[in-house]
Write a structure and sequence with these properties.
- With 198 residues, this protein is an alpha+beta fold.
- The chain has two domains: 30 residues, no CATH class; 165 residues, no CATH class.
- The protein has six helices and nine strands; from the N terminus they run H-H-E-H-H-E-E-E-E-E-E-E-H-H-E.
- The chain has a four-stranded antiparallel beta sheet, with no helix packed on it. A three-stranded mixed beta sheet has the order 1-6-3, covered by helices on one side. The chain has a two-stranded antiparallel ribbon with strand order 4-5.
- A hairpin with a 2-residue loop joins strand 7 and strand 8.
- The chain starts with 6 loop residues before the first helix and ends with a strand.
Length: 198
């Protein structure tokens, strides 16, 4: 039987494995977290009413977009192959969202009942286009694309962002920047491809 690790040994292991360190932070937190890879995403709605959101300076269209599109308990239609990752994941917290990456106030998506933070990722593989160029051969033109599988990095980013928003009570924009720094990737823009799970 293996000996119980000392705090120093545990710290050394966690330093080498950022995913395991993140799981430890989530488990050790007082707040309750929920992660799923399911065909649905159950939240308990929006924190702000439409009236309060508009009074705070938010745009009605932003509120309605989150309420009727992003809040839906479904993911992107299977036939949609290329689009923004927001169609493939959702991130909900009891902490007020604040402004998004376009400097617009965003309503707060609340996690499912009984939880303080929630991240959901659609089943399937998510790829990011890393390189794209036009190749001409004779009379035909072909667009050549290189893809990178980003599912694990995207998951770490979203879980860490959710932890920073929920446990550290950071507004989205600050949590998003810190998560990008820690898990190296810009996930708010770019082109992505979803390969649905069969």
């Amino acid at each position: 039987m293996e000996k119980i690790k000392t705090p120093e040994q545990i710290a050394k292991i966690l330093k080498k494995d950022d995913g395991l360190a993140l799981i430890k932070d989530l488990v050790d937190a007082e707040e309750k977290y929920y992660y799923s890879t399911e065909s649905t995403f159950r939240s308990r709605g929006l924190k702000e009413t439409q009236e309060d959101f508009i009074k705070a300076g938010g745009l009605k269209n932003n509120y309605l977009e989150i309420k009727y599109f992003f809040l839906a308990d479904q993911w992107a239609p299977q036939e949609m192959k290329t689009n923004n990752t927001a169609l493939f994941y959702k991130n909900a917290s009891t902490t007020t969202y604040g402004i998004n990456t376009r400097d617009k106030l965003q309503p707060t998506l609340l996690p499912r009942e009984g939880y303080d933070g929630q991240v959901g990722l659609m089943p399937g593989k998510i790829y990011r286009i890393t390189n794209q160029h036009v190749q001409q051969t004779g009379g035909s033109v072909t667009i050549v694309r290189s893809f990178e599988d980003i599912r694990v990095r995207l998951l770490k980013h979203e879980l860490y962002e959710n932890y920073l928003r929920t446990t550290n009570e950071l507004p989205y924009i600050n949590a998003h920047k810190e998560a990008n720094t820690k898990f190296s990737g810009e996930y708010h823009d770019g082109t992505y491809k979803l390969i649905p799970q069969n």
